[in-house]
Amino acid sequence: MKHTASSSDTSTQSPTALFDQACTTAREAAVLASVEAALGWDERTGMPPKAADYRGEQAAAIAGLLHAKRTAPARGEALAELAASPLATEGSPQVRAAIRLMAHDYEKQARLPVRLVTEMAKTTVDAQQAWAVARAKSSWATLAPWLEKVFALKREQAACQRPDLDPYDSLLDDYEPGGRWPVIAERFTHLRDAIVPLVRACGEASRRPTDAIMRRHFPLHDQQRFVRTVAERIGFDFQRGRLDTTDHPFCSTLGPDDCRITTRWDEAYLPTALFGVLHEAGHGLYEQGLPREWFGLPPGEAASLGIHESQSRLWENLVGRSPEFWEWCFPVAREAFPAALTDTTAADVQAALLVVEPSFIRVEADEVTYNLHVMLRFDLERAVVHGDLSVADLPAAWNERFENDFGRRPPTDAEGVLQDIHWSAGLIGYFPTYTLGNVFAAQLMAAATRAIPNLGQQMAAGQLGDLLGWLRKTVHAAGRMQESEPLVERVTGEPVSERWLVESLTRRYGPAYGLS
Ligand code: ZN
Hey, which residues are catalytic here? Predict the structure, then answer.
């Protein structure tokens, strides 16, 4: 005779059974989230324009199911009971982290009133449409009232979800768990003090590299073959992922064996696709390296957006722009583009990849000035959240700061305060993760170089397996079990510091511009 245990009454269940049930629900939520991601990927890669309205209904339906699954009161009770059970302190590190973080996420979400969630969703959809119009007309007045609403809702969200934190830190917690703005602000101040003079010195240098050879004709089909070769070479697994075309490149995970990376192409400028793909494949390598058996649960999730960005930046800039990598890559590139590169050398290409050229637009910025764009946004959005700056005063504050850092003023708001979609999408507290990614990447790469003594020779031979293996073992395998700063400190053996990024930029860009 078979006995079937009753699972209706959670209080009679063993901690192990409760844990299994909590994991099952989390995996069910992950299935819905991956359906949401599939719809989002399709929307940005191949959906016909007239399908947008119905796609909105599909996305809203999945979002509703997902929210209900994640915030069901019974789940909250089970997670609270689990958190108080011996398993929460005596389980394996993965089990302990899963219990702690599932309870944390539940409590945070459950503290948000449904009215606020709905209003935020609706307001940010309308605000993003207003943003598109405002940017096209360079009309601040079109966007300002919407941003007032978005910032007000975000302040309310901040107070609800983490009442124990400063409001900006509460918002930051969604993207960089454990991040604290005073720590980041101090680090960014040091960084800015080093980068502003470096940019100025590059601008005034008598020796200036040029990227003219990167602006020759690079046929689309040849680029497609070439970037795939490069992505494969750094370890991106095309059996578990694919590359598609889009307007604003991204990386999205649709399942444990389904990582989608995207790029845009420019036949008149090779770096658009090449570095776009290295960047997104870097994100993809992280996703493909997260512990597969924990997919949908915290030990199988990314630690933070800053850590995610550290992986993309490491491959894009610290590998992809290095002279060592181009020892391997140059012959491959010349074979792929014989007409464009036949009269060039590896040194010409290496120099062309180290051009510093201040631009008004963040997404077009080079590796050095990029961080100045980010720090400007971090300071301004924080001032608005803290009530130290009004939305109405944002354009003036933007232009003043830009002139201070870059030496010139944006001629229009479209090239200034209106250029990014983030604020109208409700992504406030998101910008600093870009530069945190650069900071983490430089420190991780320095540690990898110490751990793999012949890394330079390996890169020159096109062998990236040891570097990827080291990242897999130290960063990827940890999932979300550690917050970003303790993670980087453990892996590199020292507290997080911006000095590695300053050192990396100075070491690589100084000689290119003949600066001592
Ligand atoms: Zn990225």
Answer: 280
Q: Tell me the CA–centroid distance for residue 481 and ligand 1, in Å.
A: 21
**What strands, in cross-sheet order, belong to the sheet with 258-263?**
241-245, 258-263, 251-255
Indicate the residue type of 208: R
Cα of 317 to ligand 1 centre, how many Å?
12
Give pLDDT tens digits along the chain (516 positions): 444 444 444 457 899 999 999 999 999 999 999 999 999 899 889 889 888 888 888 888 898 898 889 889 999 999 999 999 999 999 999 999 999 999 999 999 889 988 898 889 889 888 988 999 999 999 999 999 999 999 999 999 999 999 999 999 999 999 999 999 999 999 999 999 999 999 999 999 998 999 999 999 999 999 999 999 999 999 999 999 999 999 889 999 999 999 999 999 999 999 999 999 999 999 999 999 999 999 999 999 999 999 999 999 999 999 999 999 999 999 999 999 999 999 999 999 999 999 999 999 998 899 999 999 999 999 999 999 999 999 999 999 999 999 999 999 999 999 999 999 999 999 999 999 999 999 999 999 999 999 999 999 999 999 999 999 999 999 999 999 999 999 999 999 999 999 999 999 999 999 999 997
263/129 same-domain check: no
Q: Which domain holds residue 114?
A: 2-138
- Calculate how far, in angstroms, residue 279's C-alpha sits from the geometric centre of ligand 1: 6
> Which of 90-96's residues contact partners 24+ apart within 8 Å by CB, and which partners?
91/19, 93/481, 94/291, 94/294, 94/299, 94/479, 94/481, 95/19
CA of 17 to the centre of ligand 1 (A): 38
For residue 255, is it within any domain?
A: yes
CATH of residue 231's domain is 1.10.1370.30
Q: What angle do CA 251, 253, 256 make, to 5 degrees?
A: 145
pTM as predicted: 0.95
Same domain, 96 and 198: no
Is 233 domain-assigned? yes
Distance 276 CA to ligand 1 centre (A): 9
> Would you say residue 314 lies in a domain?
yes
Coil, strand or helix at 264: coil
Q: Which of 110, 138, 166 is the last residue of a domain?
A: 138
- Give burial (CB, 10 Å; 0-12/13-18/19+) of 452: middle
The token pair at 394 is 């944002």
Q: Which of 79, 113, 138 is the last residue of a domain?
A: 138
Amino acid letter, residue 122: K
User: Residue 57: inside a domain, yes or no?
Assistant: yes
Ligand 1 centre and the CA of 434: distance in Å?
7
316 C-alpha to center of ligand 1: Å?
10
